[in-house]
């Protein structure tokens, strides 16, 4: 397969499959590739983790035995265990605590990643395999607002990483620039309702930056969890945003992952949002080679975001269930859905508007992910309609409109989830899955 620059993927980096990953040899041989300073820093980091209070999955699973097994290993891009754990060590309030510096880390450091993946992804075993990509038929879905206007907005997003590059913390300045060029060239092939324009962050003028910020489109480098993980090297080089003409399709380049792909629109038309999402991914996959694993599906920086890498969500107004949160949580749990406040994790519920999304990303297909969300929201709407004591059209329309404008693009931020907590609400980040774990077990 050719990249957009004409060179083969193999010229840059071998396809990442478990059977293709080569180690640097035995732990003793690996020692030659792990410099003394890294070994010393890693030792201090491990001791600090043991002495610090916290309930992260890193702290739960990084035992002395596993530490000793992994401490001398190095990936082809030079990633060590220190790169994997340093954010969780520096931020003891992390829920997960680990990041993968490159795709090979999921195999090279599997002794720590596998138990975390099993714990977080609802029992996904080290022997399990994620199913092959299957988008199904978007036309089977309808409009969730067919019975009444409960749903304010619908969005579907995914994270994707390119096979030819390591992940954020191990990317060089040249990597950032080349990856941005490759992605921008692939985006040029989008047409129809996907056609739009790409803006490089480093070239933004002050007035453009202000406008994008006010429209909740601009991501930033203010996240302490990602900063500790090394995700902001050479900022803002290699970062950018793609928007179609209607702002219903968005791509973020080199934010947390190489690509964050978002399809969204006002209302509950899942068919429209999903079809746009599938069409975009299908086009991009013709020109870009994404990082995948036979066992784990799509690979990305955070282990919460592997598999399909999809988050499908709605902002929905539920005046009746809003007064019975326990029942709402019960209905959502039946379809593996997560209920959050209006502006995401840790936020208040405004005018009975909730953010509800899928939890599962590993062990099911893309189509099954959307189907699970769709069926769950349908059931929630059915219950709300049958038990509602007020006409939903009598809600505060001004408030609802303001909520939509404030939250319409927040979905792109959701992958900073489990390695973040409420402090990061100041960054306008929509913390979902990584925060999920913490809240489901304390209540991500």
Give the structure's gist in a few sentences.
The protein has 444 residues and is of the alpha+beta class. The chain folds into two domains: 112 residues, ATP:guanido phosphotransferase, N-terminal domain (Transferase Creatine Kinase, Chain A, domain 1), CATH 1.10.135; 305 residues, Glutamine synthetase/guanido kinase, catalytic domain (Creatine Kinase, Chain A, domain 2, 2-Layer Sandwich).
Poorly predicted residue ranges: 5-27, 420-444
CATH superfamily of the largest domain: Glutamine synthetase/guanido kinase, catalytic domain
CATH architecture of the largest domain: 2-Layer Sandwich
Number of helices: 16
Radius of gyration: 21 Å
Described by the principal axes of the CA atoms, the overall outline is: globular
User: In angstroms, what separates the terminal alpha carbons?
Assistant: 38 Å
Provide the spatial order of strands within the biggest beta sheet: 2-3-4-5-1-8-10-9
Give the structural class.
Answer: alpha+beta
CATH topology of the largest domain: Creatine Kinase, Chain A, domain 2
């Amino acid at each position: 397969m050719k990249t957009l620059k004409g060179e083969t993927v193999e010229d840059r980096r071998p396809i990442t499959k478990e059977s293709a990953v080569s180690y640097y040899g035995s732990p003793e041989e690996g020692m030659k590739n792990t410099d003394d300073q890294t070994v010393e820093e890693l030792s201090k980091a491990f001791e600090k983790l043991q002495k610090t209070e916290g309930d992260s999955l890193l702290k739960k699973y990084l035992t002395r035995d596993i530490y000793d097994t992994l401490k001398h290993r190095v990936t082809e891009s030079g990633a060590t265990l220190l790169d994997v754990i340093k954010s969780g060590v520096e931020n003891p309030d992390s829920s997960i605590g680990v990041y993968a510096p490159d795709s090979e880390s999921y195999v090279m450091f599997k002794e720590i990643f596998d138990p975390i993946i099993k714990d977080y992804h609802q029992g996904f075993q080290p022997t399990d395999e994620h199913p092959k990509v299957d988008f199904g038929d978007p036309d089977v879905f309808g409009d969730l607002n067919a019975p009444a206007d409960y749903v304010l907005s619908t969005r579907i997003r995914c994270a994707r990483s390119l096979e030819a590059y390591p992940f954020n913390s191990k990317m060089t300045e040249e990597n950032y620039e080349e990856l941005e060029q490759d992605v921008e060239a692939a985006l040029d092939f989008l047409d129809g309702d996907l056609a739009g324009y790409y803006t490089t962050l480093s070239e933004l003028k002050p007035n453009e930056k202000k406008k994008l910020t006010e429209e909740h489109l601009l991501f930033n480098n203010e996240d302490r969890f990602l900063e500790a993980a090394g995700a902001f090297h050479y900022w803002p080089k290699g970062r950018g945003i793609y928007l179609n003409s209607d702002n219903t399709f968005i791509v973020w380049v080199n934010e947390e992952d190489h690509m964050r792909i978002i399809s969204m629109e006002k209302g509950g038309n899942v068919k429209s949002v999903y079809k746009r999402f599938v069409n975009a991914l299908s086009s991009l996959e013709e020109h870009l080679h994404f990082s995948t694993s036979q066992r784990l599906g799509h690979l990305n920086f955070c282990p919460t975001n592997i598999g399909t890498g999809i988050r499908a969500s709605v902002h929905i107004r539920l005046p009746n269930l809003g007064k019975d949160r326990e029942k709402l949580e019960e209905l959502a749990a039946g379809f593996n859905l997560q209920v959050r406040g209006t502006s995401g994790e840790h936020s208040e519920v405004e005018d009975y508007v909730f953010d509800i999304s899928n939890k599962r990303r590993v062990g099911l297909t893309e189509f099954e992910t959307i189907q699970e969300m769709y069926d769950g929201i349908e059931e929630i709407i059915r219950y709300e309609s049958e038990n509602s004591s007020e006409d939903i059209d009598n809600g505060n329309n001004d408030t609802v409109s303001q909520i939509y404008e404030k939250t319409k693009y927040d979905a792109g931020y959701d992958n900073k989830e489990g390695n973040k907590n409420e402090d990061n609400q100041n960054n306008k980040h929509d913390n979902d899955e990584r925060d999920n774990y913490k809240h489901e077990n304390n209540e991500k």
